[in-house]
Design a protein that fits this description.
By secondary structure, the chain is mostly beta strands. The protein is built from one helix and eight strands, in the order αββββββββ. Strand 7 and strand 8 form a beta hairpin. The N terminus is likely disordered.
Length: about 190
């Protein structure tokens, strides 16, 4: 009898723990604020046919963001992205910026969702070109549309992980393109 009660108690406790630990990303009554940090790799490339130059390099990036999730399908997010320096044979570039995006999500289960995002990216770039007699440095800035997609997994109602791809096409004379793959951890209040 004692073993039966003990096994029953363990089974009930395990079921209770599993349902308490199970995250439901679709269950909330009002907008929720969230914040997160991410790490990724990005590819930076451009082709300047006028000056017969090409640039292609990969580097790391960090981002921090804060957002509001209004319901299980729609969020708005403000982010800061810091892209590490990329360099080619005789060129260097470093980009950072702030973005504002709308996110449209489709829950696949209580813990998984897929999403698409799009928004505006305000950027600053420091560029340096090596010449036979020295170097030329310049700072550039601008604002451009960006887009992306990803998947999100909820470990709990408060902690989620994202795997994400984003594409930035900076509207400059040389039209640089940045493709970013990142992983992020976020906390929802």
């Amino acid at each position: 009898m004692i073993k039966t009660i003990s096994l029953s108690a363990i089974a009930l406790a395990t079921l209770g723990f599993n349902s308490a630990a199970h995250a439901d990303i679709t269950d909330f009554d009002s907008p929720r604020i969230y914040t997160g940090v991410g790490y990724g790799q990005y590819s930076f490339e451009f082709e300047d046919s006028e000056n017969d130059t090409e640039f292609d390099d990969d580097a790391q990036m960090l981002k921090g963001y804060i957002g509001t999730q209004f319901n299980e399908h729609f969020s708005v997010e403000l982010a800061y992205q810091n892209f590490d320096e990329v360099s080619d044979i005789d060129s260097k570039a470093e980009v950072d910026g702030v973005s504002l995006a709308a996110i449209l999500a489709a829950p696949l289960s209580e813990s998984f969702s897929v999403y698409a995002k799009g928004g505006w990216f305000e950027w600053d770039a420091d560029v340096e070109q090596e010449l036979p007699v020295g170097s030329i440095s310049a700072s550039q800035d601008g604002g451009d549309v960006f887009y992306g997609a990803g998947i999100q997994y909820a470990f709990s109602n408060n902690v989620q992980m994202r795997l994400e791809y984003e594409r930035y096409e900076l509207d400059d004379e040389i039209d640089p393109e940045m493709d970013v793959a990142s992983v992020s951890i976020q906390y929802m209040f």
